[in-house]
Amino acid sequence: MSLEKAGGRFCSGKRAGLPAQRPFPVIQKVVASMAHLQEEKLRLQEELLALQEKLAARESEEIAVSVQLRGQVENLKANLREQAQEIGRLRSEMGGTDAEKHRDLLVAENERLRQEMKAGEGELRELRRQQAACRDCTHLQENAGLQERLCQLQREAEEARAKLAELELEVQQKTNRLAEVELRLKDSLAERAQEEERLSRRLRDSQETIASLRAQPQQIKYIIKTVEVESAKAKQALCESQSRNQYLQEQVGMQRQVLKEMEQQLQSSQKTAAQLRAQIAMYESELERAHGQMLEEMQVMEDEKNRAIEEAFSRAQVEMKAVHENLAGVRTNLLTLQPALRTLTHDYNSLKRQVRDFPLLLQETLRSARAEIGQAIEEVNSTNRELLRKYRRELQLRKKCHNELVRLKGNIRVFGRVRPITKEDGEGPEAVSAVTFDADDDAVLHLLHKGKQVSFELDKVFPPQASQEEVFQEVQALVTSCIDGYNVCIFAYGQTGAGKTYTMEGTSTNPGINQRALQLLFSEVRSKAADWDYAISVSVAEIYNEALRDLLGKEPQEKLEIKLCPDGSGQLYVPGLTEFSVQSVEDINKVFEFGHVNRVTECTNLNEHSSRSHALLIITVRGLDRSTGLRTTGKLNLVDLAGSERVGRSGAEGSRLREAQYINRSLSALGDVIYALRSRQGHVPFRNSKLTYLLQDSLSGDSKTLMMVQVSPAEKNSSETLCSLKFAERVRSVELGPVSRKAELVSWPSQEQLEGDLPGSSSRGHASPSPGLPSGRTTSIRRKLQTSA
Ligand code: ADP
Ligand code: MG
């Protein structure tokens, strides 16, 4: 049961049974009656004071009377004392006055009230004890309220009791005083009666004496006279006594009156006491009711507590049942788990042992692991050293093998590229393609010339549909070998309009070998950047009429000279040839643009000019292997040769003839050099032209050369195509080996000779100094080609 609920019930009970402020009017009444009693007490005190004064006055009067009557009453004193004693005795026998009885009653009543109060206190203590017992229950708050109220009531009762005691004390005092006054009054009355009696007796005696004396003679008369005199005195005294008596009687009356009033006051006091008692009784009944209510509440609470306990108990029982069921399940589980626990314990113990041994094991393992690692590191280091040694040896071997391969394969290779038919070729039978290809062999092409099909075998033939990409793929191995420190030359040879510039430079959207080679070099250099430092630089030059000009220089017209290096290394160099360092494709584009602009400003007809001059792009790649300190320098020379068409034959004159002669001479010189190189002649005529002289380093030794022979497929160009292909085949037909060495005496055919040669005719032997040439392989292919035709 909740505390609020209990409190609510208690409050509602109080509202139903009692006025909300009921105890206070009672207190107020008690207080008012207290005040009234206080007033009454004051009044009585005043009256007592007045009585005391009166009594004092009376006493003084009595003292005066007694002094006056001392003589007469002296002898009566003893009697009076006796009488007083008698009165006291009688009084004690009578058992006290009414007031005393009242007082005794009040005392008894008071005692009874005290007993009841004690009983009330006992009950209160019992209640407190019960409250203490009920301290833990939820009705503590209500009990505290009730207790407080009880305390308050107790306090009020205590106050009322104190007031009552005070009143009783007052009554006691008043009763005592009244008793004293009564005693005195009685004494006075008795005294007066005695005095009266004594006086009357004396009066009688005197009258008797007078009468007896009257009966006697003279003497008697004298005596009578004396007695008369005495009698007059006595009479006077009697009168005085009587008046005195009268006064005393009045006083007694008055005292009686006072007594009566005091009795009345006593009665009113008793009434007040009765009222107080009634109030106390009412208050007690209220207390009892409150107690009863409290008990009731406590009972209700007890019931609720019991009910709650019962509910809790039943719930607990249900839960207990569930718990029991669970317990049973757990027990069964426990039974099944026990074997598992045993195995677990066993495992745990073994694990514990392992854990205990683990640090030692770990240390041991670590020690051995460290030793192993150290050993492994040492092994790896030694392996690395060994590998590095092997790698260097391999590098050397590779280079050697490469050189050997190049030597075996020939470091000069000849490719042919046939451009597609263009608008410029016009229409009609002349614009028909005279070139066909071998489906089975990409190194062979057939030319229909003057009704005859002539077949040529090159290292590789690119048909018109071959893309720039495909062409570059075949070239890129050469380009990258430049990174390894080889010198490379790629020439584009052919008549004007055969596609040399297209192959070398290409268009902006479809670049040629030049740009692709540089891009490839950049990416290769980047991929090797971990071990190598590379620097790439470019020069752009032109050879026109045997004059070398720097197209990147400040003065492009200036003719440059090729000179021997002064260091005595035998190397050539071109003083004043500009070399641009390039790091990106953007740099290359800038360089090309610059070179192009220089070339344009230097000539009136670019197309014509370009076809009459050799254009060179010289790329130098310098590398440093950071691990070995090895330095390499490779040169990639990309040459767009002048048109190979036979100008001189058409009877050109003047500058045109001179141009043609220069071109013929330089192309023949190139052919001579290549032939001499390929046939491993002792003397290579590099100095016969500016071009070969400039490229001397890049053509000799283990350098690599690619001749890209460009041809037009158009019927009308078949003669020029034939010449170009003859040039290509002748370059290629120079065989390596002992036979080729014999070719030392043979010179390169002139353009005219080329033109005059016919395929398949015996004249081809002009390139071969002995009838045994050309070699069996070429002859057999040729035979095959001829039979197919
Ligand atoms: P050259 O430099 O030998 O005088 P060009 O490179 O200027 O010849 O080529 C002449 C024309 O033929 C140009 O218009 C060029 O675009 C075109 N041409 C050459 N080769 C190809 C090819 N493989 N594919 C498409 N067009 C080509
Ligand atoms: Mg060109």
From TrEMBL:
GO MF annotation, one: ATP binding
Domain Kinesin motor: 411-734
Pfam families listed in its UniProt record: Kinesin (PF00225)
Main location: other
Highest rank taxon of the organism: Eukaryota
Subcellular location per the Swiss-Prot or TrEMBL entry: Cell junction, Adherens junction; Cytoplasm, Cytoskeleton, Microtubule organizing center, Centrosome; Cytoplasmic vesicle membrane
Residue positions binding ATP: 494-501
Coiled coil ranges: 27-216, 259-311
Record keywords: ATP-binding, Cell junction, Coiled coil, Cytoplasm, Cytoplasmic vesicle, Cytoskeleton, Membrane, Microtubule, Motor protein, Nucleotide-binding, Phosphoprotein
Signal peptide segment: none
GO cellular component, one term: microtubule
Disordered: region residues: 747-789
Family statement drawn from the similarity comment of this UniProt entry: Belongs to the TRAFAC class myosin-kinesin ATPase superfamily. Kinesin family.
Function: Minus-end microtubule-dependent motor protein. Involved in apically targeted transport. Required for zonula adherens maintenance.
Protein name as it appears in the record: Kinesin-like protein
Organism (species): Chrysolophus pictus
